[in-house]
User: Fold these one by one.
Assistant:
Number 1:
Amino acid sequence: MSEFTLDDELLNPDVLVLGSGLQETYLAWQLSTLGLRILHLDRNQHYGGSQACLTLNELESFLTSSSQTFTDATVSRINADKLKSPRQYNLALAPHLIYPKQKLYRILEQNERVEVYSWGVVDGFFTYVPAGEEGKVGDSGVSGKLAGAIVKARKWNRRNRSSVASMASFASTETTTSTAPGEEPARDKDDGLIPRPGWNQGRFRRAPSSEEDIAWAPDISDADRATMGQFLRSTAVAPPVGPSESDSSNEAELRTLLNHLTETYPLPPSLISRITSLLLTHTPPSTLPLSIAMQKLRNHASNLATVTNVPSAAALIVSYGQLGEICQDWARLVAVNGGTNILGRHITSLTQHDNTVSATLNSGETVTAKWVVGSEAELSGLANVDTLVGRQTLRKGIYIIDRDLEQLFAFKGAEGKVQQYQLPSAAVLYYPSESVGNENPILVMARSSVTADCPKGQTVLYLSCLKGTAGVDGPMDKAVETLLDGCEWNLEAQEKPEVVWKAQWNQIVGTNAKIDGRTLRLGELGGDLSVGDEVWENLDGWVDMLAEGKGKREDDGDDGEDDDVDEEEREKRRLEKGKGKATEEEE
Amino acid sequence: MSDTGAPKPSSSVKLVLLGEAAVGKSSLVLRFVNNDFQENKEPTIGAAFLTQKCNLPSRTIKFEIWDTAGQERFASLAPMYYRNAQSALVVYDLTKPSSLNKAKHWIAELQRQASPGIVIALVGNKLDLVSGNDESGEGAEAPARAISTEEAKAYADQEGLLFFETSAKTGEQVQEVFEAIANAIPEVALKAKGAQGMGRGLGGSAGEVAPGLSMNEPNTKDSCAC
């Protein structure tokens, strides 16, 4: 790349930004908006850092090259014949969902970037409930008391099924073949995914996330239904601790989600798992602090029914590159604002001066800037910023399946209006601890080919799990097998869907930012499958600091002390703005 | 935004600019955007994209024009730049031989990365320098034409591209390029884009701008990609 020469102006920017992950590009973009001159480098030939989205070949070489944050990778081309051209895969290192009410989406909205991306909808949150666990669900019997609910559910399902052809054929078998031992036939008529008889006795259950879900789920007993309802209502209330509690604050801090859901709102384990699946966190309910769990649940609940495309959905995904796509867009905005992006360059040394920092590039030049900001991968070993706090290691996996797993992407409920709605293109699956021999919960983000992650006729599964003491690769394989085994995916082609390619690696997540002189190392994003709002608060603080008073940041009306008022105000404004437009677009 | 002029169907079309640095990509766009409408759209340097309407007899096309923002200089254009682009303007400088090679490179890249149905126009810019019509004193000696019309046209025909020679400076053929692109965009592509509008709008509080409906979009792309 030596053909590109950097002139003096480029070599003396206000800020040298190293890496192009979500945080680095946000910072570079925001600073460039304020008029700071940015030189923005990435050591790779692609944008995105730890959030990059790569073609199959790119991912293989990325994972097998050495890196501090990505280690112990294995890549297997299990059935290379079934792989399509590598460029037809857009595989994400960060398969996150985006909630419309979270700050990330609002940033896009405020900057009119929403329409730049192709959005998809996440509808299904499924929990794998092993066969043994099922018996513990609602012992009070599905028969008499729930008859009404089942009839309702049948109607509900029929509507859905008639609208989605594959769902219909799928459903027709379950009614006749529900012979798994210990199962009551009536229970098969729910909206969960039913195992193919004889293959597997576990099942995938949808997370009941709204009162309607609870009211209509035929696999929840009346007693549990009431408790669930109470619990769900309690999440809508601000105080994170249950209403009847008189916990001292210390006790409250120590309380876990599991405590809460076994003591205050006693629910069976399988229902606890189903609730936990909504949290998108790798921490098991037994150690997850209640306050955090409640915050996440509230977040999920507040996003329900905000997606008009699919009324039952609460979250979105970005097609193609997911967070990597956003990184690419923000990097471009840096260029639009007069900054310079250069791929394939990194620094080999860093020297701090009183008011500047200078860095030597791998291409030989020396850059002198007022500040250097970089990701962990870019700065590791260079700056005195190596004390890492809050480190977690995830084992992650990507599995490419040679089949459309349509049932994962079916509607939960569409009231016969399927034509009007966008089909979900992603789903979340949750495997509680021990359910497939796993020490910690396994989260799966499944994405259909509609997202362009893979060619038509295939599906990509992104798995992740906290790395414990035991190996995770086996349980991950088992989780995928369970999914592929457990469902009658395609009646015509009786053979099972299979994994054609997989990769697994360790990834360090959730590290803290650290500053040393005029060098700022940004931490790695947390491990959750959504980007928490706190990330942006921290980054905005860094932006202010690095801008050193230049071009006072506009108040986006978001940092107010009283969030509720802001929220209301915003809604009002939106409604007003929306009115004229909505009617215009209606016809 | 609020001008509700003709009741003609109107659709948005993403157009990306590509070409070697300094061939006049941005100038072409500025010429097009500023000339066509009196409506004073300041040439927003630092805009993520510029928009300009193109009125055809049967419909109105609203171009969303994306500039490379200089990212091509260090070969650092991101793939998302091409995504969902229904049209591309690949520009070369007809006084500079290397720029056509670069243009060919970009066309190959588009054919690999972009939607199969993308309308690509190959444009040789700086016609004023070789046509001799425009004797602006400041240019010193006028460089000779380095790429013949025939050579570029033959290449364009072979690749199925629209072809024009333009001058951003005088405005010659600039409007024509965009009109030709607008005309060449298949009705179907516009309909798909129209359907996208339907999906817009997250309910209530999430705001009126919303995820575009893209359920089939990537698929249509990939289905022919192999």
Note: Helices of chain B lie at 25-36, 97-113, 127-131, 149-159, 174-184, 187-199, 217-223.
Number 2:
Amino acid sequence: MENQRLHTDLRNKLHDLESPFNDRVSFEAVMEKRKRKKRRVIFWIPTFAVVAGLFVVGGLGMLWVSTDQSPEKAPQMAFSKSVYKPKFAQKRTTDKSQTLTLGAASASTEIGLSESAVSLARKRALSSRRVITVSKIETASPGFEIPEIASPEIPKSIESGITSSVSRFMAKAESPVSLSVPTVESPLVNETNVLEAAHKDMLCDPQGLKLVEIGVSDPEKTYLEIPEGEYERSWDPELLKSKWYAEMSATTGSKVVINFNEDDRLSVLGNMYHANYHGLILKDVGSGFMVGGGFSYGEWIGNGEWRTREFEERMEIDTYDVVVMIPPVQSVRVYDTTYNQVRVEEMGKINYRINKIAIPIALRYNFMLGKMAWRVGAQVNPGMTLKTSGDFFGKTEFMPIQQQRMFTLDMKLATGPAISVYKDWILILEPNMMYQTFNDQVAKKTRGKTLTGFGVSVLHRF
Amino acid sequence: MTEKELVDGCIREDRICQRELWNRYSKKIMSLCLRYCNSQEEAEDALMEAYVKIYDNLAKFRFQSSLETWMRRVAVNLCINKIRARKHIWSSITEDEYRLGYTDDAFDNLQVDQIMKMVEALPVGYRTVFNLYAIEGYSHKDIADMLGIDEGTSRSQFSKARKVLQQSIDKAEGGSLAS
């Protein structure tokens, strides 16, 4: 209670206390501060808008990429392996439809396939790149009739059947085969954009296309399989993909050279940078691997400063006279010699430049990590210098490399995500590590440094 | 000019009202800031920031307390935020120390500026809790919430502050007696 009273007293004493402040604090200063704060807010609004916009665009891009990468699923089940034969499809102009009548124990259950045609064709014939698959099945039973769905896009000339295969399969069947279609709404016309899927799949599944399922519904009752063999080999959509790619790439990297050892006579503090540009032709050799070669141009520069530390022994001679006060008064000159070790430092600038060309040999491996396509790239660039100048340096040494024609060998290791930016165009963002070497003709020594950095590659499929 | 007129004018960005608000309360708020801040400069910065906040948020003032009380609260919150940003380490205290405190007539013989100087001389933790509890009248629970510390820590800081203040008072009185 006493304390409460004290606090009240104290509060009364301090509450109305006024304290002066310096001239810099004024109403005008507050207003100016307020104005600046508002200005800051206005500055941030467009900045936030830009950042938010970038996030939205990035998000939509990722969504687009991930959506495109998921394989198209037809609503109905079908043949376990459907293949198409693009070359043959165009050639087969005659209607090879066969009528199949399958034996049945009961007449009522007899099902005649008056017409069974499965046509697969490339839509290239239709000035499009789509492959259209039509499954048309008619039953003998009027109650079991499936309405024919005509596809106006398919000219008869390109219809080709695989009914002969189907016929063979059906003929082997001992029991009656019943083809049941669950609902009339079930789409019998099934368009699968195989080529487009092939293109996109390449971006996400470099090991090849998965076969696209097409056909009729109800897998429990009907399961038609086309026997493996010639058809499958020649109708493999994998064959449609181009195996050739062009790659253009720009790579940068840097390295800091610094020596913390104070005992070294020479120390160099510097930075190295490189920029490398190359164009490659790559071939997809399967299983996600690509190999290729091309042309490369690179610049490797360095600049910094050197410092030498040396200890010098310096002799200092002090002289003073000592007066001997015994008569006769004489003076004696004394020489005091001392040796001091003095550290002498010298500093200077240092730089070099190496321009070179090379013929790179490249190996690429593409793989999926989650829903994202990634690429690992390894590359060896044997080449030679075009121009050299200055003094190349290490931590504790530097050596002149002026006007030397030297052999170079660079090795690059890079990995990064591959993003499909447009049809047949892929952007690869690659952090990389590049070991750059050159053969010093004068010193007869190979010198090298590893620089790390970032690179951007654009891949185009022919 | 009444408080209502003043507030309404400031909301309308009336420069005369804004200046009047500054003239009327700035020195009191400065006194408050000085009690929380470590230096004159810091207190002046806090004062200006507090006024910027006050001008910006006057529309939120509901007249449920006096304008001065509301302004003090804004300034106190700002100073507290500054102190919290400094991540002051609160020291603990034993129960015996907690019972120690100043005597009932401790501040009777002291001038306001002497008390002010003593409060300013307290370490940050003690000073903040002392200001909030003894002068602003917050409870230890409120202080604990505001500062993000335990209620016990708030009590212990306050107790230590009292102890240090008592020593300062004794010293001041001894000095005045000696003179």
Note: Chain A touches chain B through 27 residues (CB under 8 Å).
